[in-house]
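Q: For a teaching handout, I want to show students what a protein-ligand complex looks like in token form. Below are the inputs, and the small molecule is S-adenosylmethionine. Please produce the holo structure.
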Amino acid sequence: MELWFTEKHTPNVKFSIKVDKQLYSGKSEFQRIDVFDSCEFGRILVLDGYLMLTEKDEFIYHEMITHVPMAVMPHAQNILIIGGGDGGTAREILRYNYVKNIDLVDIDELVAEVCREYLPQTAKSLDDPRVICHFEDGLKYIRHHENEYDLIIVDSTDPFGPGEGLFTKEFYGNCFKALKKDGIMVNQHESPFYPADSYAMQRAHKRIFDSFPISRIYQAHIPTYPSGHWLFGFASKKYHPILDANWEKWRALKIKTRYYNPKLHAGSFALPSYVEEIVREVE
Ligand code: SAM
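A: Here is the structure, written as tokens, with S-adenosylmethionine included.
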């Protein structure tokens, strides 16, 4: 008998991965949490039926959401990660030895516990002394911080359920306030391909564009996300994501990556014409 994990990408499109077995299934007060083991993608974390990460391709997402801003921000020492309870984003940031503090704010402590148990390749970072976990709503946390962070990474679920508040004007405005005068905010920015995802991306971009002087979008190919074409938002008070990137300094750090590199960093901001149109409509 075959077992498959299936995610509905649209009412008419399903994406399935054959699984060997289900390792965990549970429910927190916020969401259902499942972990599967598959031959193609290794272990898979699923929240409320939506694929969050797989062992095989998580490096793409976690490298792109971290090394792009870190190659631009010359001295990031105090970092805020909102969401990211699987630890993958924190793992990549910890590779910069000059980073002093990472506040990781995830609403659901059970996600961190389950990932510690079943996904140590990302969750091992949660126990690093530089990482301070706060298990609370990021929308509330950010209201009480001002002029504090060099970089904020919004590594959230999608704009519904517990993650909905992390796509609002109020939230982006508070992220702006919580950043230092040359701070950068990067967020997982959904996808341009399917209508519902594209609408969510456009709405988020409008709210970020209205909150930051510099607001750009970049992309990566993530095989297990809807359409495989995934976007990230880069919002900044001062730095341009390409003109102010310091790739000499970044290369000198000798951080070994499997997806990110300086040429790809620059190229990832060159969007397809149809995506540019969607974005320009709200600028
Ligand atoms: N890093 C993974 C990836 O590769 O896309 C997925 C992101 S991570 C699992 C998403 C996290 O956002 C979840 O752990 C979820 O609990 C958290 N989250 C959702 N809503 C939140 C909120 N309002 N405040 C803080 N964390 C939230």
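A: Two things your students might notice: The domain at 3-54 is CATH 2.30.140.10 (Spermidine Synthase; Chain: A, domain 2). The longest helix spans residues 58-72.
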